[in-house]
Amino acid sequence: MTTDPRIELQQASLRVTRPRLAVLEVLGDEPHLDTDTIIGRVREKHGSVSHQAVYDVLRALTSAGLVRRIQPAGSNARYEARVGDNHHHAVCRSCGDIVDVECAVGHAPCLTAPGGHGFVVDEAEVVYWGTCSACAALAT
Ligand SMILES: [Zn+2]
Ligand SMILES: [Zn+2]
User: Fold this and answer.
1) Which one of 45, 91, 99, 123 has the fewest beta carbons within 10 angstroms of its own beta carbon?
2) What pLDDT does residue 105 have?
3) How many whole angstroms from its chain centre is CA 83?
4) 50 CA distance to ligand 2 centroid (A)?
5) pLDDT, tens digit, for every residue of 56-104?
6) 22: CA distance to ligand 2 center in Å?
7) Distance 139 CA to ligand 1 centre (A)
8) d(CA 36, CA 17)
9) Given a cut of 60, is residue 3 above it in pLDDT?
10) Is residue 34 scored above 90 in pLDDT?
11) Cα of 99 to ligand 2 centre, how many Å?
């Protein structure tokens, strides 16, 4: 996935700005980063950017669908640039590491809510909880 962030922004009808490009670039390098880490990386590469600017960028990119926000229970919100493929996440209970898990069935699971209730479902989230290989190795 080497989409040009400029083109992504234009296709989403978002103005191309330096902070937006910087955040997309950071998330393109590494997925599942929390806000503080993103701010740190953006500053390393692009100098001073305010917390508020990064928060605003994350909100804009998330609502435009260019960035996906995930928040496993008990964890900070994490962001990733891999969107639209319905992949899932496995979260380590011990170190909080998050890894991508390919979609098991090839389409969003259980999107037809049982029994109606007039509820329109647009997403069903699957999170696998367990122990990552590094933590499992430490435990033995
Ligand atoms: Zn772990
Ligand atoms: Zn992911």
Assistant:
1) 123
2) 65
3) 8
4) 26
5) 999 999 999 999 999 988 888 999 999 978 788 999 999 999 999 987 6
6) 19
7) 10
8) 20
9) yes
10) yes
11) 6
Q: Exposed e or buried b for every residue in 19-57, given b needs 16+ CB within 10 A? A: bbbbbbebbbeebbbebeebbebbeeeeeebeeebbeeb
* Span from the CA of 52 to the centroid of ligand 2 (angstroms): 24
The CA-based diameter of the chain, rounded to the nearest angstrom, is 53
Q: What's residue 121's pLDDT?
A: 74
| This model's pTM is above 0.90 | no
Within the chain, residue ranges assigned H as helices are 5-11, 18-29, 35-46, 51-63, 133-139
Q: How many helices and strands (H and E) does the chain possess?
A: 5, 6
